Amino acid sequence: MGEFDLIERFFKRPVTRAALGVGDDCALLQPAPGMQLAICSDMLVEGRHFLSTVDPIKLGHKALAVNLSDLAACGARPLAFTLALAMPRADPAWLAPFSRGLLALADAHECELIGGDTTQGPLNICITAFGEVPPGQAFLRSGARAGDDIYVSGTLGDARLALEVFRGKASISAALFEDCRARMEQPTARIALGLALRGIASAAIDVSDGLLGDLGHILKASGVGAEIDTATTTTLLAASRHANWPQANLGGLELLELVLAGGDDYELVFTAPVAARDAVLAASGEASTPVTRIGTVQPEAGLRLLDARGRALTHRFASFDHFA
Ligand code: ADP
Ligand code: MG
Q: Fewer CB in a 10 Å sphere around the end CB: N or C, the chain?
């Protein structure tokens, strides 16, 4: 199968929202009048971001989900995306499920594939996603203010737990592993929550490298610090609510480490003024996405972890850094 047959067969679909899709030198995108375009790119590299054994349907899903997650963290509504794909060979048995997983998530968010590039090479998937947001309403990392509450959506740490099982470090029951693995391989982008939080959240970021590291980016950009209530955060590991949890063997890993430093969760961590607590709960309900208040923004720089009695923990948690 040649390059153009491949594009035609697996990636070319009629567009309804974009003015022009796959097949020309450029695609044409028409954002609604007055809206700003929100643009993000995320690349998935075999061996770095996923294991070679991963199901291509799930990989297609994840490649788009991690990009939609960045749009969510800006409060943007997805419009379209491009796909730059390098792969060792044009294998229909891989391409068919990959494009199915990718386009199913795209359809669920009405986000159209409008173009890309295809080349032979080590498996590497780079997506650029485009969304729209009203001017002035995108959540910026620099928007947190001292006194704001800090929230996180959904659950945290389960993707990292699955990774540790793959690495042979932790061992958990098969049922629990399936749940954690789904969190790692098929993350949910919190688009609905991002939209519902427009005009409410003061800053937001998605958790890709670990809660503390990602929250750290907000704190740094905003010139503030934070206190985190770790007694609350330990309840965020979905696996810990599982009936089989007591049999889990974390192989020396701490629960807090999973929740605070585990990556690949694609939840939103965001800040909002105390006066907006009811509005945050309403947004959570509107988006059918649970949120948990985990701490407070402080004027002094630095991230302080407090135990159930309000005492400072001294343990340091490292978040993920590709070049560290
Ligand atoms: P060009 O030579 O102008 O770079 P290509 O031959 O690379 O164009 O691609 C032909 C058309 O197919 C373009 O519209 C391009 O956007 C689209 N395309 C290429 N690869 C992909 C892909 N993986 N997914 C979606 N569209 C693609
Ligand atoms: Mg090209």
A: C
Residue nearest to ligand 1 atom 2, measured at CA: 25
43-66: average pLDDT: 94
The domains of the chain, with CATH numbers, are: 3-133 (3.30.1330.10), 141-306 (3.90.650.10)
Which residue has 């291509």 as its token pair? 56
Q: Is residue 122 predicted with pLDDT exceeding 70? A: yes
Higher-confidence residue of 49 and 320: namely: 49
pLDDT band for position 304 (cuts 50, 70, 90):
very high
- What's the CA gap between 253 and 95, in Å, rounded? 37
Helix H, strand E, coil C: the string for 70-124 is HHHCCCCEEEEEEEEEEECCCCHHHHHHHHHHHHHHHHHCCCEEEEEEEEECCCE
Residue 177's pLDDT band (boundaries 50, 70, 90)? very high
pTM of the complete model: 0.95
Decide: 194 in ligand 1 pocket, CB within 6 A.
no
Which ligand does the CA of 22 lie closest to? 1
Count other Cβ atoms within 10 Å, centred on residue 16: 8
The answer to whether the beta carbons of residues 54 and 155 sit under 8 Å apart is no
Question: Rounded CA gap, 311 and 230, in Å?
Answer: 10
